[in-house]
Amino acid sequence: MLSLSLGPIALPVAPLVLLGAVWGTSFLAARLARKGEDAAQGEVAGNTVFHAALFGLLAARLAYLFIHADAYLASPLSALDVRDGGWYAPAGLVAGLAWLAWRSLRWPRLKKTWLVSSLAGVSVWWLASTAVGLAGSPSIPAVELAELEGGKAITLSQAAQGRPLVVNLWATWCAPCRVEMPMLAAAQQREAAVGFLFVNQGETQAAVQTYLRKEGLPLREVLLDSGSKLGEAIGSRGIPVTLFYDAQGRQVDAHFGILNAAALESRLRRHRPSR
């Protein structure tokens, strides 16, 4: 599952899971530390968990930027665009736990509280993230689509032709889709060994053709999903969604929301066939 729909709004599930785990950890730490009427100690315990989460997020982002420095140096402002999903979780986890360990030196009475609450919080976050991942489709869904030109029925597996695959779910009315589309179109032109499929959600052939012609986008391999069945199959009602499959049809990455060029390049490096 990639997104959660609340009426007309679709929210990414991964940040919601993380936020829930942090809040639960903070609440547990505050309750364990609040002995008798010592509300101040409970407040310190809970706030320290939130601070650990903030330090962890900062470390996770900086570590990701360091690992993919050359991609982000090409467009430095992309480093500020946290919507791209660029986080290195191990660095964040280490930084957060290190902050709790340092605070335990000043508040030794809370050491056990932070140990128990952090173990519980990390466990809940890991289990929830695993469950969310399993709720999606680990391989290319067997959804029948139609080619934009000619209307011939085709599945993603047939369109993949044994290539590593980037699948973008989009629509002409979706503002984030329109923002990232020129970047994805350029990547399709550039990446000879990786297939890029653009699967339109719920619109007519005429509407899609008119949009592409008006915007001057030289897209190849545009497919129509008139019933929006692919989004349902992968666990996302919202768009844009970008999926990454290896040459065997296994899903290796997925992103809900807008992608920038640096984030796409960092994923393609793990996705391109080895030479």
Automatic annotation (TrEMBL):
Record domain Thioredoxin: where: 134-273
GO molecular function: isomerase activity
PROSITE patterns documented for this protein: THIOREDOXIN_1, THIOREDOXIN_2
Protein localization: Cell envelope
Parts forming coiled coils: none
Swiss-Prot/TrEMBL keywords: Cytochrome c-type biogenesis, Disulfide bond, Isomerase, Membrane, Redox-active center, Transmembrane, Transmembrane helix
Transmembrane segments: 12-32, 44-67, 87-102, 114-135
Family annotation (CDD domains): TlpA_like_family
Alphabetical list of PANTHER family matching this protein: THIOL:DISULFIDE INTERCHANGE PROTEIN DSBE
Record-given protein name: Thiol-disulfide isomerase/thioredoxin
